[in-house]
Write a structure and sequence with these properties.
mainly alpha; about 220 residues; 2 helices
Length: about 220
C-alpha cells in the first residue's frame, strides 16, 4: 500500500514572497492607476462637469425668468383680488348700513307700538282692578249681612233647642219619678206575694213533715 504525503498550503508570508515577474504580483486594475490613464479619466470628468454646469446655468436662468413671470402674474392677480374685495366690502358696508337704518326704523316703530300697547294695557288693568275692588266690597257687604242673618238664625235655633231640652228634661224627670213609684209598688206587691207563697209553702212542708212522722210512728 502506497502512502502519499499531502502538499502543504502556502502561508500569507510565503505568498508575499512571490518572485518578481510572477503573474500574481500585479492585479488587473493596476493598469488604471497609470498616469496616462488617470489624466485621461480626469479630463473626461472635467468635460462632463463643465457640460453639466452649463446645462444647469441655462436651466437656472430659464427658471429665474419663469419665477419673475410668475411673480408678476401673481402680483397682478393679488392686486385684482384686492380691488374686487374692496369693492365687495364697500357694497357690503352699504348694504349693512341700509339694513341697520331699516332695523333702527323698525325698532323705533316697535317701541312706539309697545308703548301704546303698554299704556292701553295699564288703563285696562286699572279699570279691571277698580271693578274688581268694587265687586269685592259688594261681596263683603253681602257676606256680612248673610253672616249676621245666619248668626241670628242660629241664636234663635239655639234658644228653641235649649227650651226643648229643658222641656224634655222635665218630662223625663216626671216619667222617671212615675217609673220609680210604679217599680216600688210592683216591688212591694212582689215581696208580699213572695211572702205569702213562702208562708203557704212552709205550712205545706209542715203538714208533709207531720204526715211522715205519723207514718214512722205507726210502724
Amino acid at each position: 500500500m502506497t502512502s502519499s504525503t499531502p502538499t502543504p498550503t502556502p502561508t500569507l508570508e510565503q505568498q508575499d514572497q512571490t518572485p518578481p515577474g510572477s503573474p500574481l504580483q500585479e492585479p488587473w486594475w493596476w493598469e488604471w492607476l497609470k498616469p496616462v490613464v488617470v489624466v485621461a479619466v480626469i479630463s473626461a470628468l472635467v468635460g462632463v462637469a463643465t457640460l453639466v454646469t452649463n446645462l444647469w446655468m441655462g436651466s437656472f436662468q430659464s427658471l429665474r425668468a419663469d419665477i419673475r413671470d410668475g411673480n408678476a402674474h401673481l402680483t397682478e392677480e393679488i392686486r385684482a383680488s384686492e380691488t374686487r374685495q374692496r369693492e365687495a366690502l364697500r357694497e357690503t358696508k352699504a348694504e349693512l348700513k341700509a339694513d341697520n337704518q331699516a332695523l333702527a326704523k323698525r325698532l323705533d316703530e316697535t317701541k312706539t307700538e309697545l308703548k301704546a300697547d303698554s299704556q292701553a294695557l295699564r288703563a285696562e288693568l286699572k279699570a279691571d282692578s277698580q271693578a274688581l275692588a268694587k265687586r269685592l266690597d259688594e261681596t263683603k257687604t253681602e257676606l256680612k249681612a248673610d253672616s249676621q242673618a245666619l248668626r241670628a238664625e242660629l241664636k234663635a235655633d239655639s234658644q228653641a233647642l235649649a227650651e226643648r231640652l229643658d222641656e224634655t228634661k222635665t218630662e223625663l224627670k216626671a216619667d222617671n219619678q212615675a217609673l220609680r213609684a210604679e217599680l216600688k209598688a210592683d216591688n212591694q206587691a212582689l215581696r208580699a206575694e213572695l211572702k205569702a207563697d213562702s208562708q203557704a209553702l212552709g205550712e205545706r212542708l209542715d203538714r208533709v213533715l207531720e204526715t211522715l212522722l205519723a207514718a214512722r210512728a205507726g210502724q
